[in-house]
Amino acid sequence: MSSIALSTSGSIPAIGLGTWPMDDAEAARVVPQAIEIGYRLVDTAYAYGNETGVGRGIAASGIPRDELFVTTKFNKEWHSVDGVRETTEASLERLGLEQLDLLLVHWPNPSLDRYVAAWEGCIAVRDAGLVRHIGVSNFLPEHIERIVAATGVLPELDQLQINPRWTQPAARAFNTEHGVVTQAWRPLGMAGDLLELPLVTGLAQKYDATPAQLLIAWCLALGLSTTPKSSDPARQAQNLAAGAIVLDPADVDALCALDGTEPDVTSPLTFGH
User: Fold this and answer.
1) What's the rounded Cα separation, in Å, for the pair 137 and 108?
2) Which residues, 6+ apart, have CB-to-CB distance to 3 below 8 Å?
3) Are strands 100-105 and 131-137 parallel, antiparallel or unpaired?
4) Can you say whether the dihedral through the CA atoms of 88, 94, 97, 102 is positive or negative?
């Protein structure tokens, strides 16, 4: 399993298990299955409504806690220093854990204008030992610049909507320049149509890979971590095996040339929870 170094210490697995939109029952079944296959990164969130199931799955796996990397995120209701402490403690209880590996502000919600306070709360729970690493999700450079100006603390990771039809080059370049790991959510597209594009299926054949494997390999070629969701053990194994696929630079560029054609972009400037 390849990993990507984090700016403070340690690293995060390059490929993880996404759990949206699993419910508690599905997560409790799928998470230990994925861990047995070889996954070591599990991504959840308060908004997913499955932290309890993820926690049960982690406990059922029997794997030592220090071998897993568990991420969760919190909503705008807790965008305050005290609120982040409250939501972190509640997530830990639902997950059955004493410490999170990574806590993310799920959305900046700029219309609410409390994401600086949310970031201050993340720093506080990290300093209190409740979490090891802190980061953001769906933050654009302008949002990161503001929280750093206020606190002097950079996020260690920024989780963004990224696939070949929506590559976010400016945000990725900003993150790279500042030592922030970029992690792709929804790397396989929204409704599966990305998996059926002729360019994707043709390149998949070239590499003797599935279309999903090709898209995951594309993320890794850009230096991204990613967390594709699958409940099927065969597809989980295939997704994890994508880490061994090395794409030619010309093929990476050909996929990047699809940028701007994503039909389902979720803007952090107008959406958030």
Assistant:
1) 8
2) 11, 12, 13, 14
3) parallel
4) negative
Output the CA torsion sign for 139, 178, 259, 186. negative
For residue range 59-81, list pLDDT tens digits in order: 999 999 999 999 999 999 999 99
Hey, what CATH topology would domain 3-256 get?
A: TIM Barrel (3.20.20)
**Farthest CA pair distance, the chain:** 52
Residue 254: count other Cβ atoms within 10 Å of its Cβ.
16
What is the C-alpha separation between 226 and 272, in angstroms, rounded? 21
User: Residue 213 is which amino acid?
Assistant: Q
Catalytic residue among 39, 48, 115, 207: 48
Write the pLDDT tens digit of every residue in 141-159: 999 999 999 999 999 999 9
200: tokens are 């994707």
Take residue 31 and report the two structure tokens written for it: 């998470």
Phi/psi at 119 (5° precision) = -70, -40
Q: Where are the domains of the chain?
A: 3-256
pLDDT band for position 33 (cuts 50, 70, 90): very high
Owner of token pair 């729970």? 125
Element (H, E) at 70: strand 69-74
Q: Please enumerate in sequence order all residues whose Cβ is within 8 A of that of 93, keeping only pairs 6 or more positions apart, or say none.
A: none
Q: How far apart are CA 71 and CA 22, in angstroms?
A: 15
Band the pLDDT of 190: cuts 50, 70, 90: confident
Listed in sequence order, the residues at least 6 apart from 211 whose beta carbon sits closer than 8 Å to its beta carbon are 194, 195, 196, 200, 201, 204
Clarify whether 207 is annotated catalytic.
no
